[in-house]
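[09:14] KT: can someone run the structure on this one? pasting the chain below
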Amino acid sequence: MSAEIELTPTSYIVLGLLSMFGEATPYDLKRMVSLSVGQFWTLPHSQLYAEPARLARGGFVTEDQEQDGRRRKLYGLTDRGRESLKDWLGVLTPEPYVLRDPALLKLFFGADARELAAAQLETHRQKLAEYEALGAQDPGTGFRGPWLALELGTRHERETVEFWAEQLKASGSDS
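[09:31] RB: done, structure tokens below
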């Protein structure tokens, strides 16, 4: 018998990654997040270690533990987990994304725009280069969603670079 649990965004991240990549340990999930959704959705790594076991108790994933060696736990998607992910994906999300940018918060409260711009410009140029390099790779076949998310992230970084470059220029710097 499975326990009734409420699914959270972290739950759907775990279910989604397992649906894309198959069975995984919590460590595998942590690596997957850092290389994918972690670019736009932050969560404590501790949640990725606790969430699969919670989902197993709810019947959304299977849990198999190695009998010897490191005795790692391996999690896989169940039919219930696959169906829950499918249902969640089918629910429209009309809310805008939440932008949590410490530099923007500091700018709002009066930080020196020139100093912020200099630091932010370098940071966002690096992130843009990283995204563009990823986007230049051939996606081949498979899931299209990650490539669409990458495209939106790339566009966001381009606009952010342009904004900070304008702030730097407006404040009289030649960088």
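[09:33] KT: thanks! Strands lie at 61-65, 73-77.
[09:34] RB: yep, looked fine to me
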